[in-house]
Amino acid sequence: MIAIDWGTTSLRCYRLDAAGDVIDWRRSGDGVLAVRDRHAAVLADGITGWDDADILLCGSVGGRAGWLEMPYVACPAGIAEIAAGLHRHEAPELPGRHLWFVPGAAHANGHRAGEVMRGEETQAIALAGILGSGTHLACLPGTHSKWVRIEDGRIVSISTAMTGELFELLRRHGSLASLMPDDPAHDADAFARGFADSQTHGGLLHHIFAVRTQALFDALPAEGRLSYLSGLLIGHEVRALLPLSGLPRGAPVHLAGNPALLEAYAQAFSLLDVDTRHHSERISAAGLHAIARQRGIA
Amino acid sequence: MIAIDWGTTSLRCYRLDAAGDVIDWRRSGDGVLAVRDRHAAVLADGITGWDDADILLCGSVGGRAGWLEMPYVACPAGIAEIAAGLHRHEAPELPGRHLWFVPGAAHANGHRAGEVMRGEETQAIALAGILGSGTHLACLPGTHSKWVRIEDGRIVSISTAMTGELFELLRRHGSLASLMPDDPAHDADAFARGFADSQTHGGLLHHIFAVRTQALFDALPAEGRLSYLSGLLIGHEVRALLPLSGLPRGAPVHLAGNPALLEAYAQAFSLLDVDTRHHSERISAAGLHAIARQRGIA
Is B230 in CB contact (< 8 Å) with chain A? Predict the structure, then answer.
């Protein structure tokens, strides 16, 4: 089968064997925001040469701005509920293929419209399969970080933080952008300084101005500014969400995402004496395979 | 004399009579960021027909990205210190004119590089003149809000919040931008809802995602989304900075800025049972006049 993790800014295509192992994969920047109405053509391109009939898709490709809008499955949701929510779709441009869209997950937490995610439910299902019974906390950083609590194989709560998006907005636009070097390496000291400052008084809107004042008075080397900002923002996220996460005492936080981001989050948790376990972004493929098998497709 | 309040995004020119009253004024979007190296030409255009020799300038025109970089006067700073810090400059393109640049103010608060402001020191000096002795709190909203404590006519502390900048970034760029109607009126109910949510758990990075979930599930009318976001952000600013501000019990907060912004901040303070007094943006002209008189120019 073919597993597709199609988010707002990237497309990841995996070809899996019968055991669910990745035998080939491709990645491109053709995220949902970029492809507009050319989904079928972009997908055909991404899977060229792979002749498997069944294609499972997760991520914002199933969102309002995606290919077709899938409903959300209500938490608590495990692999049974998510597999039952698969929607089969045939695209004329892709003869002989069966597209299966994975539903998102929604958590009615009692506050306003609650919480939602698309794509991360599949990662959480993969983690649930790896980790087995008990309570586990997944932190899935990205444009929007998703904190997902898993109890005995089911997703029971979701919390979102728009940390990655705010980091990009501040880095690329606005008054701090001109202070930021192009692509500095992660600076662990500057990150730790920002992380420490995130717990001082005054709040996030106040704290980020310190990027500017330190630049004005040369109090922070230019190469450290981006990591300082990252430490501030991730510090605010982690300090606010960890106490609400239900992480069992002494248990590790399970991180999945791109390696550079995981390095930053691992440092943040480590500064709070919380252990982390790192998982590859490819767990999406494992999650899609498990969902397919549950439905009797793979 | 002529008073110039020249910030990053706007230029305000005032012609004053000997008593300091505004007899003519002009405003344009030729902020410091837009004019680059054409300061003299843009200023000449702004004061066409006004033949007064002395021109006082405050704001980021005296900053690193401005016409010339002025030092900062250290707090505590009153009108004497600021007038003493005026820098006279002659521009060949403006024969017969004396340009006087107002220094910024810096507050070494013991944290990192401390705090700075440019332009708001002049508004604070104007307020100090209006309010007289005692302790007063000024909240000067804008791209960056400045909270300024004034004691017996001197600026003693500064705190910055990048609220306005973040509001613009979220409104114009990123994943919430497409949800925002163009120019809705202030929606007091939606603002109050955002303000209330700013004190729930989870932190700012988490809270702003509720703009998206409420849009997804039609839990907030489209016209209210911008005011909801404004209430969230201003709520975070005010709740974090008010307790640190040293506002005397029962005293009002003095607000100066554009009327739409003052309306929002006044609502926020009112929701915390704090009174406000509103001052026009034009107090910059009064401050520049007072500084000129102190120096013996006007």
Answer: no
- How do residues A19-44 score in pLDDT, each as one tens digit? 999 999 999 999 998 998 999 999 99
Range of the structural domain that residue B182 is part of: 163-279
Parallel/antiparallel/unpaired status of strands A54-58 and A2-6:
parallel
Instruction: With beta carbons less than 8 A apart as the criterion, state whether B89 and B68 touch.
Output: yes
Residues 147-186 of B with CB under 8 A from A: 159-163, 165-166, 168-170, 173-175
Number of domains in chain B: 2
Residue range B3-59, pLDDT digits in tens: 999 999 899 999 999 999 999 999 999 999 899 899 999 999 999 999 999 999 999
Q: Which chain B residue shows the shortest CA-CA distance from A113? A: B214
Same domain, B7 and B117: yes
Round to whole Å and give the CA distance between B206 and A135. Answer: 22
* Same domain flag for B128 and B12: yes
Contact status, residue B144 vs residue B155, Cβ threshold 8 Å: no
Q: Structure pTM?
A: 0.96
Cβ count within 10 A of residue A272? 12
Residues 235-274 of A with CB under 8 A from B: 236-237, 239-241, 244
Q: Indicate whether B179 and B269 sit together in one domain.
A: yes
- Predicted complex ipTM exceeds 0.95: yes
Contact B169 A168 (CB under 8 A): no
Instruction: Please count the residue pairs, one from chain A and one from chain B, whose beta carbons lie less than 8 angstroms apart.
Output: 145
- Say if A143 is an interface residue toward chain B (CB within 8 Å): yes
Q: In what order do the strands lie in the sheet with B115-117?
A: B72-74, B104-107, B115-117
Same domain, B91 and B22: yes
Interface membership of B64 toward A (CB under 8 Å): yes
Q: Output the domain CATH number for residue B167.
A: 3.30.420.310
Q: Which of A113, A173, A233 sits opposite B216 (nearest CB)?
A: A113
